[in-house]
């Protein structure tokens, strides 16, 4: 039996953000010669990678005077960023308002209420861009600070300063780095850090298929590309349907005991797809193994009310219209 690591005493909830664990995936199906390593961002305090960026973006805004003490903060989000902001912003003394499209997963309202944030819905047809416009309008109207995760460079800087170094320290020479594209912050910040040190590293973006809406993953079929995304860093982009993400998420919890969110399933599906492509079309070493780092952006407990864990025929397809976080 593996030795249980010693627990660390944290000074406050903010010092518990980041330094998330890695787990090698040894039970899920994968191509021969491939080692998969998962970085479990669901162990952050509110259960997602977004704790990292929200804390650092607010801290930087405080430091340079853009955010005043107790000033309201508004942000557009389909879930994880809003939840992270609700907890961290409240802990820092800021009233929080989250703007979300109506097709965001319904429990977001309950979670935001628990953390004391207010929620404004926008039409589903307007998508995230509509929610962003409304958030900016609301911030201007009430004198609030607009967090603006899609444009603030501190988003990428957070992952350059924390996520990238954590990957490099744990797995010094991975061959492939796979992460989802939501704001573009994780894959741009961490990817840039890693490629500066490992020029041969292949950075693979996981994107929602245009016919699907895997929350936490952007789909660019409407022409919106996250401004923070540095496409020059990318070696490949894998489109993932919701049904494939659901199946991989169920495989993770069944075989590995990892209760990951929908985007974790999408990243696992993308990593295996890319590894298979390398083996079939070149890029796979003639001898030895390749290692792939997968960023699992959140945990699955937020999805307990959904039927995605069911294995009934057609269950996955029935969930395609929901924006998942």
Strand order of the largest sheet: 1-2-10-7-8-9
Helix/sheet category: alpha/beta
- Series of secondary-structure elements, N-terminal to C-terminal: EEHEHEHEHEHEHEEHHE
Shape: globular
Distance between the termini: 34 Å
**How many strand segments?**
10
Mean pLDDT score? 88
Strand content: 15-25%
| Distinct helical segment count | 8
Oligomeric organization of the protein chains: single chain
Unreliable stretches covering 5 or more consecutive residues? 212-217, 321-325
For the report, how would you describe the main beta sheet?
6 strands, mixed
Helical percentage: 25-40%
Radius of gyration (CA) equals 19 Å
What are its keywords?
alpha/beta, single chain, 6-stranded mixed beta sheet, 325 residues
Please give a structural write-up.
Helix content is 35%, strand content 16%. It is α/β, with parallel strands linked by helices and 325 residues long. Strands 1-2-10-7-8-9 form a six-stranded mixed β-sheet. Strands 5-4-3-6 form a four-stranded parallel β-sheet, sandwiched between helices. Helix 3 (108-114) links the parallel strand 4 and strand 5 (118-122). Helix 1 packs across helix 2 (80-91) and helix 5 (154-170) crosses helix 6 (185-197). The protein starts with 21 loop residues before the first strand and ends in a 29-residue tail after the last strand.
């Amino acid at each position: 039996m593996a030795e249980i690591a010693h627990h660390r005493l944290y000074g406050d909830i903010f010092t518990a953000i980041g330094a998330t664990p890695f787990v090698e995936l040894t039970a899920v199906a994968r191509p021969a010669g491939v080692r998969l390593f998962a970085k479990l961002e669901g162990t952050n305090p509110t259960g997602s990678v977004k704790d990292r960026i929200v804390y650092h973006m607010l801290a930087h805004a405080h430091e340079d005077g853009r955010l005043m003490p107790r000033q309201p903060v508004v942000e557009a989000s389909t879930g994880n960023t809003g939840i992270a902001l609700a907890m961290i912003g409240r802990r820092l003394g800021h009233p929080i308002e989250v703007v979300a499209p109506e097709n965001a997963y319904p429990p977001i309202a309950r979670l935001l209420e628990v953390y004391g944030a207010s929620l404004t819905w926008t039409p589903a047809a307007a998508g995230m861009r509509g929610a962003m416009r409304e958030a900016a309008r609301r911030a201007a109207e009430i004198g609030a600070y607009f967090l603006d995760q899609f444009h603030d460079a501190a988003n990428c800087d957070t992952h350059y300063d924390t996520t990238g170094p954590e990957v490099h320290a744990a797995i010094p020479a991975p061959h492939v780095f796979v992460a989802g594209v939501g704001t573009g912050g994780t894959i741009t910040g961490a990817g840039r850090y890693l490629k500066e040190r490992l020029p041969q590293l292949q950075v693979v973006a996981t994107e929602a298929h245009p016919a699907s809406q895997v929350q936490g993953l952007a789909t660019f079929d409407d022409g919106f590309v996250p401004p923070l995304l540095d496409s020059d860093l990318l070696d490949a982009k894998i489109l993932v349907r919701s049904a494939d993400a659901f199946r991989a998420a169920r495989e993770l919890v069944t075989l590995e005991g990892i209760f990951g969110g929908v985007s974790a399933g999408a990243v696992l599906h993308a990593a295996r797809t890319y590894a298979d492509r390398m083996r079939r079309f070149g890029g796979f070493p003639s001898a030895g193994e390749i290692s792939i780092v997968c960023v699992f952006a959140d945990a699955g407990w937020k999805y307990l009310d959904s039927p995605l864990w069911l294995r009934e025929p057609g269950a996955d397809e029935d969930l395609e219209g929901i924006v998942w976080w």
